[in-house]
Structure formats: C-alpha cells, structure tokens
Design a protein that fits this description.
Distance between the termini: 22 Å
Structural class: mainly beta
Number of helices: 3
Low-confidence stretches: none
Radius of gyration: 18 Å
Helix content: under 10%
Oligomer: single chain
Largest sheet: 8 strands, parallel
Number of strands: 19
Number of domains: 1
Length: 306
C-alpha cells in the first residue's frame, strides 16, 4: 500500500484508507508532484486481504500517489482483489503485469489523473476469482459517484494494453467485462488488444439521471482491436445503467479500431499458458507488445500458480 499527498477527488482533501481507522493510513493532499519513492522490477504475489466486507487490500493499492513517484516493471500475481488500484493521485505507471486478479485488473477511482503504458492483464480460469463481476479496466470518477466538481474527474490515458479474460461465459454472478467505465470518469485508450471477455465494454451511471450521464466525448479509443468475445463489444443497456449512452460509440467513432479482428493474430490460449503469454502474443506487435516484444523478459516475471 502506497499512500501519498497528491490530490484526490473526494468530499475532503484527505481521508483514511478504506476499512481502516488509524490516521497513520491517511492519504490525499495538494502536492501533485509528491514522491512516494521508487518501485521498479518488483513482484507482488499471493496478496490481498478482506479488512471488512467489500473492503479489501489489493495487490498494489495506491492512494494519492504523486507524479514524483517512479513505478515501472511491476508484476502482481494471484491476488485476492484487484491487481492495481489507484485512489486519486497523479503518478504515471508503465510495464505492469496483472496475473490472475481476484477482481479487477486495473482500477482507478477518486480522480486518478495520469497515464499508463505497456500494461498486460490475464485471468486463467475462474477458480481464483473472488468477485461477482471481475473486469479488466474499472474506471470510477469521484467518491461514491457524487458531483464534486470542479475537482477533476478520473482521467487515465492508457496506451499499449493487452487484456485477456477467462473466455468462460457465465463463470461469475455477473458477466466478465473488458472495461467497466462509470459516471464522472473520462479516459483515452490507444493501441489496446482485448479478448476473451463476455462483453468488451459496459458504461454505467450511479443514478441514471441527466446529471450523471456519461458525456458523449468522455472516452476515446484509437488503433485498438477486440476479438474472441463471448457476446459483443457493447454490453446490453438496462433501464438503470448508463442513461442511454451507447457503450461502444467511442470505439466506432475512433480511428483504426476493429470490433472483431479477423484473422486473430493470437488466441486466448496463447495468453493463458503456464509459462505466460506465448511468442505469438509478444511478437504480434499489438497492445502491450506494440513496438516492444521483449519488455516482459527477465527474472522479475514469474507465472507460477502457487
């Protein structure tokens, strides 16, 4: 758990980390350039703990971590909850691996405003999942979805990303989504490869009111591809889901996106081998390996299941 003094989008400038009561675990402040130090070539394995119901420690939890922090080449493997979760903050992060998250692979909340590149996530089977609705990305805008403007919403620029779901339809209480994008969140996606989920994208609002409607230009996507989805890119709308927002509009409105790449450059099974993604994934020049097929090599990576 990294706790810093960068801004958060919440009803207070700072707060105690969820599920805890000790003020030593306070995060948030006004220093966007705050430093929590350096983490490079780190592997975090078999972590995660339920502090209280629905309050869990993730593989790497980051509260208000500032841009003065260095985060790269970090693998979270077989964790009980999310692999990586940010609550506010401004820290960029690159070369991240999520292997078998119990819930979401990459989760952003409370006004996390930063950029990430070269992220790889996979889930091998349903056995390790503790969540009812696991996702690849889960972007949330502000604390509890309330309107805290003019504080900034969550805005993540994610570039060079590959997310591989289980490929098992109906394995969980709710569908497994590649991306869950909520009200008061914004983002830009570029060069994303997404496969093996039941649905590619689901946008959601808190109350289905006009004030919570997702802006038409809240999200953008270019140079990205979806394939091997159990259903479709866009999840079905519901009466209290996204206030009529067309889930995959930012895909269809973007440049050089393919909603059903055919022929597929690699299979879901290529993502899920016991020794990690195969050469077909790494040499595809797509997603997390676009322009760099070797960044995952080295002793900092270990795909052992236990």
């Amino acid at each position: 758990m990294l706790l810093g003094n960068a801004p958060i989008t919440a009803s207070t400038t700072s707060k105690i980390f969820e599920g805890l009561t000790d003020t030593d675990f306070t995060y948030g402040g006004s220093d966007a350039e705050d430093s929590s130090g350096t983490m490079q070539y780190v592997r975090i394995e078999f972590g995660g703990w339920n502090i209280l119901p629905d309050k869990e420690i993730n593989g790497l939890s980051m509260g208000a971590v500032g841009s003065g922090t260095t985060l790269d080449h970090i693998m979270v493997s077989n964790t009980r909850d999310d692999c990586f979760e940010w609550w506010g903050g401004t820290v960029d992060a690159s070369y991240l691996i999520c292997n078998n998250a119990g819930d979401d692979m990459f989760d952003a909340d409370e006004g996390y405003v930063a950029a990430g590149e070269y992220w790889f996530g996979r889930r091998v089977g349903a056995g390790a999942v503790s969540s009812a609705d696991p996702a690849g990305f889960e972007w949330d805008g502000t604390e509890s979805g309330v309107n805290l403007m003019p504080k900034p919403p969550t805005h993540v620029t994610a570039t060079n990303v590959t997310l591989c779901g289980t490929g098992v339809s109906g394995a969980f209480t709710n569908p497994e989504y590649g991306m869950v994008l909520r009200e008061r969140a914004t983002g830009a996606f570029d060069t994303v490869a997404l496969l093996g989920f039941e649905y590619g994208i689901d946008t959601r609002t808190n109350t289905n009111t006009a004030a919570d409607a997702i802006a038409a230009d809240a999200f953008g996507m270019d140079n990205s591809a979806f394939w091997a989805l159990a259903n479709t890119v866009s999840a079905p709308d519901s009466s209290n889901n996204d206030n009529g927002y067309v889930d995959d509009s930012f895909v269809t409105d973007g440049v050089n996106n393919d909603k059903d790449l055919d022929p597929a450059p690699f299979t879901l099974e290529d993502c899920q081998t016991v020794s990690g993604p195969t050469d077909a994934v790494k040499e595809s020049d797509l997603g997390a390996f676009s322009g760099d097929a070797t960044w995952m090599d080295g002793r900092w990576v270990d795909w052992s299941p236990n």
